[in-house]
């Protein structure tokens, strides 16, 4: 191992590990409460028609129940509202229990005036995120289940005509795919709620069936957006704690109708305010409560089913998932309400005002005369820690009397935040109002405070330019907020890209220590609902990580804003510093899944370097030396950037289309706003480091296995150059091809890989023993020559023993010639590189193998098989390569072509494989195919 190379590649590997550590360590602790059942959960299996059961033997439909409710539903005399839960990748149908149990408790609290029937589907915990061949089958089964569910209510009063769907992970994508089925009636589903569903693209695009499924679903919703405007979709993402599905993928495509689609993060959902991991999103109590509240508010009193009005559905979802006004949901109307009676009316004429209640108080109204402040101030702000009152603030027209008429319920302008509810009014928008009235209800002994003030927006808004990406946290941007007030806005300028990441440090200095109140800091991202909220503790300093899930669009000019809600006696100092660790985490989050492609690309470069060494030096150099010589980012990155630039011209794009080349993956990622400017360069360098250390590890394992083989069968005979293709090997290839077609292509590839590995271990063992024999014979000869010059008394028993061992080795083992030894070493170096390449190909094809093994009891054949066609070519190629010799490659007329081809294949792997990982298998197959040609031509 070369020390300089080891240090360089080790440093790069550490960078990748640091980025992965920042990704997986999470940005906050789990703040979700666990849901639990009051009674033992039961799952009643719904009997489906025989034709459905025969067609889908591994899928089942269940009805969730508890206690008495489960017994009542045993006869399937259902009267509730049907909701169907779809589990995701490796998900269980039992994940519905949190939703079902809380909905049942909620129904009991309202005396079962309304109730829901929660159904769930068992997909046999299939790995549909890694194998797309079963997604269409799942979609068709869901369609049959929807029809079967509605059939259960046939003939009943208020029988439902549609089913609401909740889909977790890939289950949400299956729900959207229903509408793309032929002859599907879109009226059967009017509401879809998805949890941590990657709508934009798959997390790991390891097979083409997965990509095709996504393309068909998203294209259908884009083309049919007007026809599907009556279908309401809510997508809830988990935030930064979900490292399996990054939240940017969970945002519904922007081309969808904005009136019927809504995407939020769980950290921004009112009364939840918590990031969830990929599994906890199905049981997070705060999020499940918000979902169930929304379902009950969606019920139409007349039909006793979910409302058919899409505008009402969106209003309910916005109420519970976007901006909660701290009141029960009710539709707005123009009813005029008179605020009068025995209430206490207190006029307030001060600029800043605080009201504190430490004991029980009666209903009170505080009125602010707007004409006294409107000339000098632009905004009115009020905040209270009294959280859940149905009415709080009103705008009134009044001629001086305290009997006000409510002309507009300003409670809808109220926003609920952790520990506080706030409202900020722009006075010029309410020029017709003469007063603003703050309502203080009967407290019943509850301690609370209300703070209000008038202010000018400019005095409370500061602009802070964020630090540069390459500052590496060496300096920071700072600002001091000397103005005492309840609310401050800090606009973070030039913070709009996903590759930016910062640490925001807020230092709070309050005058009154005893009466210090908790401060609430909200990082608001205006172009997407991914706001995060942090509550300050008693500590003076509070750190907030700032990074994005979705980049800002080109036409958007809004600014990320840090909003501070605090008491009036506090001042703040804010510093913004670039976080290098979080930037690495963002790179791994957005581009980590494509890292195997860059590793394969580097190995292809090393393989090309070995072929060039055969031409120039006559020998095949070692894998690590070839990687060090040839793995250079400037060989790949500039070519891709040039092609990307030229594709902006019509003439070049026409030429590109004539060649039937697909779109560059970098162009697709740039259009989606998820491309880092230096991501490809960084991943290429990191891929080199991983490929280097992976090769070191593979060589160590080879040495270990060869030691075991030497212990079992001691033989120093090097393999002879035989025919590459014999009748026996041809029969073996045919058998493997038949096995691949009847079972799984990845399984046949694994068998060939193990066969190849066994051959390499035997060759490695023979080379080690031959070298050892050469060394012992040479040492014995030196000792014999030395013993002739000295007496036997001075020679010693050790020299005599060594000489005897050397004579024994030379007589018992036919030592190869130096040329044979050199050829064997060259063969070993070439095979080790090919084995490194094949190892990553086996890893990329393993998802379909795992899926096949998991479903082996239902079907012995994987249909469709993503690796099937390629496996047939690779089986013949590998069986011939593992028996080939380096001498046949040296003398080939195609050697120069093959050596130059590896660079083109390495470029193509990066250009077309970052978002289509399965394409790496095609380019490696082409490379090995040319190696076979070199053996014959």
TrEMBL record:
It is a multi-pass membrane protein. GO terms for cellular component: endoplasmic reticulum membrane. This is GPI inositol-deacylase. Residues 1-26 form the signal peptide. Its EC number is 3.1.-.-. InterPro entries: AB_hydrolase_fold (IPR029058), PGAP1-ab_dom-like (IPR012908), PGAP1/BST1 (IPR039529), PGAP1_TMD (IPR056824). Belongs to the GPI inositol-deacylase family. GO terms for molecular function: phosphatidylinositol deacylase activity. The chain crosses the membrane at residues 674-705, 730-756, 830-853, 903-936. GPI inositol-deacylase that catalyzes the remove of the acyl chain linked to the 2-OH position of inositol ring from the GPI-anchored protein (GPI-AP) in the endoplasmic reticulum. Initiates the post-attachment remodeling phase of GPI-AP biogenesis and participates in endoplasmic reticulum (ER)-to-Golgi transport of GPI-anchored protein. Residues 595-936 form the GPI inositol-deacylase transmembrane domain. It is found in: Endoplasmic reticulum membrane. It comes from the Eukaryota. GO terms for biological process: endoplasmic reticulum to Golgi vesicle-mediated transport; GPI anchor metabolic process; protein transport. Keywords: Endoplasmic reticulum, Glycoprotein, Hydrolase, Membrane, Protein transport, Signal, Transmembrane, Transmembrane helix, Transport. Residues 77-297 form the GPI inositol-deacylase PGAP1-like alpha/beta domain.
